[in-house]
Model the fold of this input.
Amino acid sequence: MVYGQTEVTHDLMDARKQSGALSIYEADDVQPHDFYTDKPRITFVKDGETVELECDYIAGCDGYHGVARQSVPADKIKTFERIYPFGWLGILSRTPPVDHELIYANHENGFALCSQRNAMLSRYYVQVSLDDKIEDWSDDRFWGELKTRLPEHVADRLVTGPSIEKSIAPLRSFVAEPMTFGRLFLVGDAAHIVPPTGAKGLNLAASDVSTLYRILTKVYKEGRADLTAKYSEIALRRIWKAERFSWWMTSMLHKFSDDAFGKRMQLAELEYYTTSDAGLRNIAENYVGLPYEPIE
Done:
């Protein structure tokens, strides 16, 4: 089943609206305060008015560039990061997907990926240098390079058309530890980034939410405030396993250099993991997402 991230977002927003819960959009100057006390609060500006929100707990679900992680004192947090020496040039086109499943390609020119949004909306990527610019890549050049990197029988059925969106995204692995700071919890991209090769970004964010939700449910229903201290430990175990899988997929499928030995190792790994029952089970287990841990 392919469930596009934008569709997940739409469905979650619709569900929240139907529940009657309040959502505030386009707020400015959002800042968390006093999260090391038992009375944390958030201030923000909406329609020119400063608003203060008193909280029991704060979930920082505001992404890699958000204020939640940046509000934590530097001596209270440690970060781990790997920047990859290439990016993904991606386009969106109103064309039927080349296949009903994702296609990952390892080619001497670099990585390629075919994915889909719906029956008439396709998303395609090719690995490019971080020095490349969008203006360097016309639609014709992109389609030509994508076809080159795909198997001939796939390239022959690729439907091309004008791009409606085009961007170059750098790849990085990033983790912040811990994820709990008093009554502030980092959730999703605020705490970790994975290369998109492993398709683990939304999966990890959802697992963070599940862990925190199950903990806070017990806090409010059973008075188990002691469980909040376990959030970071539980979440990070899963995060590092997903970071490993995404790093491994990236290492196996992308061109890092012209080293002939390294290329042979990539091909040997690909052959093992796509022809061995053990290899296929390994990929399937990690790609779908590891089981959630109990919170106690």
